[in-house]
Amino acid sequence: MDLFAAAASTAVLGKGLMIGLGFIGPAIGIGLIGGNYLSAVGRNPEAAKFFGQALVFVAIVELFGLLAFASTFIVK
Amino acid sequence: MNALISRFADSGPAIHVAPAGVFHLGGVAISNSVLYGWIAGLIITTFLVIVARKVTVRPKGGAMQFIEAGADFISGLVENAFDDRKRGRKYVPFFVTLFFFILLNNWFGLIPGVGEAFHRGDNPLLRPFTADLNGTFAMGIVTMIYVYASSIRESGGLKRYFAHFFVGSPLNPLYFIIGILEMLTDLTRVFSLSLRLFLNVTIGEIVIAVFSYLGHVAAPLTALPFTLVELFIGALQAYIFTVLSVMYLAIAVNHAGHHADEVEDIDAHVLTPEPTAHSKSPKGSTA
Residue B200 and residue A3: Cβ atoms within 8 Å? Predict the structure, then answer.
């Protein structure tokens, strides 16, 4: 137990869980956006001009992962 | 064993998330990010003024071509966001400035020597301006004040500006609550804009610090791929910051253009109830 207390305190575990779980959602979301964008381009190559809009949605989704990361600094 | 694990837990890459004061100027602590922000701002201004003096009709190439391409790209983007291209044209200078300021500040942060390389006391001497929440928050506030002021001016008065938050008459309780929520959502944009930029740049700094720590002797080799990724992400974040603020402005301005005539008869709406769906389409009951 002493070993764990030295290396892995509950705060460290909590931070790891926060980052790990918090990044799952945005990862799935960005995957969906990218996959749907590519399938749209596959069906209709004209849709390729909406790449900028796809990036904007990636930025919106990504923010939630970044918020999870930012919250780890609150955990002491 | 115990000592080994605790040594690994204790020693790690040096990571700083918050800026730290470097020196005092008339009683005000100047932090490392502000110092580097000044340096970067001076260099950016000088560079862009020199480029602007040299602009010719026939493109010359080199650094000028890069600036011209960026300015052209952003001005096309701003003009296309508005229904009326001429209306969008006067907002081009601000957004082009914003784009280049963020882009070059992000890239200046990746120059070797910025970050953990030089220390003054315990704190790094230089820190990229966009890796400081105060800096990005200031940028977000300035941008959103500009956006609000322009959209109020475009919609022609405060009353009309606030009217566009409401789908229908504000006296209807449902529309009223939705309108208030809409206003609150509007205020969170400052935070989402500044937090996104700050966290992306800071995470990039941390990732580079971690991988140059892991690489030890071969630090340049291990950190190089992530530095290249950060070059791309820095450009992407500058683009996203600009596009989102252009969109916030364009939504309000375009909306104001459509609603300009409707606002007057808000009171008329309240007094004379709209014809309901039932009275309009008797087919609905039979189907």
Answer: no
By DSSP bridging, strand B115-120 and strand B123-126 are: antiparallel
Alpha-carbon distance A55 to nearest alpha carbon in chain B (angstroms): 8
Q: Do A73 and B17 touch (CB under 8 A)?
A: yes
Q: Do B9 and A8 touch (CB under 8 A)?
A: yes
Residue B22's Cα: distance from chain center in Å?
Answer: 27
User: Would you say the C-alpha torsion B27, B33, B39, B43 has a positive or negative sign?
Assistant: negative
Residue of chain A whose Cα is closest to the Cα of B6: A7
Q: Each residue's pLDDT tens digit in chain B (287 positions)? A: 455 444 444 466 777 777 777 777 777 888 888 888 899 999 999 998 988 888 777 767 777 888 888 888 998 888 888 877 788 888 899 999 999 999 999 999 888 877 766 777 777 788 888 888 888 999 999 999 999 998 888 888 888 888 778 777 778 888 888 888 888 988 888 998 999 999 999 888 888 888 888 877 887 888 888 889 899 999 999 999 999 999 888 887 877 666 554 444 444 444 444 444 444 444 444 44
Report helix, strand or coil for B20: coil
- Total beta-carbon pairs less than 8 A apart between chain A and chain B: 47
Q: Find out whether B244 and A53 touch, Cβ atoms under 8 Å.
A: no
* Rounded CA separation B276/B287 (Å): 17
ipTM above 0.90, yes or no: no
Q: Do B9 and A7 touch (CB under 8 A)?
A: yes
- CB distance from B77 to chain A under 8 Å? yes
